[in-house]
Specification:
Radius of gyration: 28 Å
Number of strands: 0
Largest sheet: none
Distance between the termini: 25 Å
Oligomer: single chain
Length: about 750
Amino acid sequence: MTSSSKQPDSIVTKTSESAAIADIDAAAAGPHGFRDGAFDLEYSLARLWPYGLTLVFIVGFGLWHIATNLYLNEPGIWQNAIHFGGFAFLAAITVSMLGSRADRKWVIALDVTYGLIVLAAAAWIAHAENGLYTRTLAQTGLTWQFGPIDWAAGLIVIFAAIDLTRRLTGWIIPVLIIVAMSYILFLGEWMPGAFRAASLPVSDVLFRSLYNDEGMFGIITTISSENIALFMIFGAFLVVSGASDFVIEFAKIVAGRFRGGSAFVAVFASALTGTISGSAVANTASTGVITIPLMKANGFRPIFAAGVEASASTGGQIMPPIMGAGAFVMVSYTGIDYGTIVLYSVVPAIMYFMSIAFIVRVEAMKFNIGVEQANIVDRQKLLAGALNFVLPLGVMTYMLVSGRTPSYAACLAIATLIVTSWFTPNKMTLKKICEALMMGMKTATMTAILLVAVGLINNAVTTSGVANSFALMIAQWSQGSLILALLLIALASLVLGMGLPVTAAYIVLAILSAPALAGMLADGLIVDQLVAGISDPIKAAMFALAESPLVAKVATGMTPEEAQQLVGSLPFELAVVVRPALIDPATMTTFLLTAHLIIFWLSQDSNVTPPVCLAAFTAAGIAGSPPMATGFESWKIAKGLYIVPLVFAYTPMIGGTLIEVVQIGFFSLFGMYAFTVIVQRHSEGPVAWWVYPILVAGGAASFWPMELEINVAGAMTVVSVAVLSARRGPGGRERDSAPVTPAETLKGGTGD
């Protein structure tokens, strides 16, 4: 070995971390102004036009979101229209229509003018609503009475939603919008079978797109204007106040002394950072530049280090209390309060991160990676950011679980952070508050534009009834099999995730498949009732429309197989009537939430599943590993994204009692460990080939729904395998064998 290779781990780690920090500083350097998305404060103040005026607008726009949600209580369409118009202006000046000429003065002037026109058009749409109703009511029997300015403003905002979405996310969403609107305008009447739909007049389509609750400025945009924007601002305040630095340093203390501790740091830090970041890619980029070099220095393979970071960062989107934008959408679709959804998500999130921790542990044992000798903790960053992270986040979590609105909780958390920061070295001065507002608004721009644009798709789907046709298709293709339906939805989410951001993929899938999936989950209770017999003659008579000889047994009872057959024979139109009649509304709501959580979890897989997996590709760039191979490694590590939805579907994890939830979550961990051992072909030590059938049985028993004796037997089986394998020593070596150094581990190639 060379002298450099003989350096202790502490030196390697410190050097890697310093290099990573240097990379961050270098990446932050570059052109100033708003074209690069930096919104540099000093540069903006030095050049009043256009940057200084842009600064004033951004800060004022951020304060407007806080004020409207706390005090002003503006009418919904006004709030949503201004929300879109403001972010449309920011998107127009941030991502130029003429990219190669973006810095020319006339191009900047053109983009600014375009953004202002869209803002004015959105404001007009809100202003014109009452007049439109008045004119239309006065012309009974005629279509919606739009004036010339109404037509122009409506077409401008629709065009802007499509155009700006294209600039920010690519062509997938714009193409879907065009197809969706064409479907209700003229394409629907040419479609065959269940997908045939009547064409609507242009005025009807325009009205529904602008003013319906399912349209541009409806329910989905309300989620963005009342919740998401505020949480993005809160996240930016956490970053500016030094709370994100605290996350990294705290993770080093908690997880850095375990075997393979640097990888545990990545898992723990990404879980905490998920409360700040609204993007798996951003999470990967922010924490990965620190954690990936640490993992490599500790002896982990570069491809594995990148996979752990991408998988853990993806988990940040399912981590309470914020959960990206998913929880807000679920509130809207299910009617369940935010605090309840967050509480239901705690145990599943722990299960996911523990599944990553298991594979980290097994990897460390497989390659004999030791305890990291030194995780250099910056105590100044730790102490400076502790209060700014813990107290505001604690206040927000308490507000959410106590029933306060998410917008109120976010605003109070921001106020708490500003006050507490003055008791720390990272005081939130006026300059830092402006920086946080600018960062929050910039971060929220893509999500805000995207959700407004998705409203156009949502309106078309709702208006045409194509969601029911899609649900019928899932029911027919799955033949009543829940597992097959889950596979179809997982495949659809993966395909959509190749071109759509996670939130958009989730919303599209939720609109199309959540009701069908909720219905299939409810069918299990109907089967139980059929087995026992339905004595109520009115309820029993509902099955008479089914073409099955088993109808005669509805009142007397039947075998489970017969009940499954009868339920499977129900026409879709009859099934949607039978379910609410036999199952109480609260239970149906729980099934709907379960369906949404399943789809939400499956929609995350596009971050880590090839061929398009942006979080994995981002991590690969930091680690210097092959992007596609890193994607497959990330997919393997993030197996919890597929396992936990199955637990949702087949157990009372959602809606069960506390004891049931804890039992399911606890024993599922043993099943996940068994699955990890099978995938990695290693436990605490090498595993013989004949052990794998035993592990399969033990893992299946650990997952078995609500059978305590079976769960205990499965857990004991998995633990026994781990204990026995440990006797052979880590990495297949005897316990007294010499340890493998990080340098030797890296020389050994990529491994399995």
